[in-house]
Amino acid sequence: MKKIQKLFPSMDGNDFQREEILSYFRSILTKIDELKDPNKLTLGEMPEYTEDYYNRVIQKADVPKKGLPMEEVIQELLKLVEGHRYVNRNYVANAAPLPNIASIIGNLVMVLVNGNNLWDVEGPAAATAEIEITSMLSKLIGYDESTSAGYTTWGGQGAVFNSLRLAIARYAPSSNQNGVPQNLYCFCSELSHYSLYKSVEATGIGVENMIRVKANVDHSMNLEDLKEKMEHVIAKGGIPLYVLATMGTTDTFGVDDIKGIKRIAEELECTYGICPIYIHADSAMGGMYTFFNNYDFESNPLLFKDNVKEVLKCYQQKFEHIKLADSMVFDFHKLGQTPYITSLFIIKNREYLKYVDLDTAETPYVGNRGYGSYHTGYTLECSRMGSALTIYASLLAFGIEGYQELLANYIRVNIAFRETLTKEISNVVITNEVSPITTFRFYPEKTRWNEEMKGILTIEEMTEINQFNDDFAEVIGAERDTVFYGNTKKQCLVKAANSNKPISVYAHKFFAISPYSTIEEVDRYVGFLKEHLAFFLKTSSNKNMILTTG
Ligand SMILES: *Cc1c(COP(=O)(O)O)cnc(C)c1O
Q1: Threshold 0.70, pTM exceeds
Q2: How many A from CA of 132 to the centre of ligand 1?
Q3: Which UniProt keywords apply (predicted)?
């Protein structure tokens, strides 16, 4: 047993065993640091992802008969790290965080004491941290912290699922016994995340009962269309149960007008005498911008320039109404720069939880004891990681102002990127509003975005432009070790001249998430595109010539 005990941290806190763990940490940190290169995206060399790569992994895998020495375990782990993408200044693809140091430490503490966030008796640190961050962030967004509740869960996706479950149970408390009623309808923007799609599948509501609402030019939900579609459902005898208000769409950062959505919901409730419609703010992408809810743009203490201030002020006007939602989410592992998974689901009225909480008779192991008073029988998980500790550490280290600086930088860099991109390249168009994300689209010759928006191009013409962008995405994707851009095949939907079916627009994505992505880097980002585009145009026009002459 002595040999097995050596695999564990000490019981008595002796120096020797601590030094041993520290030396492992040190060698991991040192090796990873050695692999870092600010001019590359990856840590060391990327493995060759041949077609049989994963098959070979499957063939080779076996649990070793005898345990390996720790040094070898570390070597094996570091082999996995070889070629890993590392979020540095060359990463401009998606909302992938570089976990900040406080969050890494918070995470480490979580693992070292390894509390179970299911029950405070088993995980007191996480329980207190969860309650504390729920209160902190409730205050920030304008929920009453004495009536709100929150828990960390499986991502923005989990928050959508959890909110839909609450909506169903609130509307039909007997549904836990009898199953979900058949006439419930959910509404979301056509640009919303697929989280709701999966959730209507899994709750049994069914995809047929998920109604997609048209988006406006600014990528927010069209409220007339929402109202019309809800009234249509009511007229057919259906129940409008739930609206997903996206606060920052995944690809374009469109922000739904939640105040307008709430107004429509209340109008309909009043006119038709229907039950309150549940509104979940899907703020997985945008929720962090509530950190500006109380920023004073007049005195502007952080000295933001006018162009940045203008955008942030506009966000303030949208995000201050998030408090109208029945629930919302903070995905810290997106713009909050913490490790996966650190998502806090917040519910405005903790009373809702009683509809989904387990009866104490159903939880014989935990919870129903004289000791311990925090038992999350209402979560879909049983055992839960204490990721509230990670978020807590991050909030303490950044403070409101630290996050404001970080979030403002995303905007600053995007504004500079837009300016430089359109100055340096003529056949490009930017296809979304200023935000932490810039979507843009290239054209073989001059830009035709206005015509596309007006719906006067044919499907064939738009498909060709999509294909052009798709091919170019492959070209720059192959060079992603230099600068890694994102892309999307559904930036928005537009009409075609010769079809009733809306056409998806392909676009490239610039998402400067790293704190090392500053305005000084912008020329390099655009230079990369310019250089590759010139080459691509040359080679693709050669191809055309071969085609026409051949
Ligand atoms: C990312 C995202 C989600 C999903 O969040 P996860 O944390 O990845 O589960 C949901 N909604 C929106 C708008 C998102 O951007």
Answers
A1: yes
A2: 23
A3: Aminotransferase, Decarboxylase, Lyase, Pyridoxal phosphate, Transferase
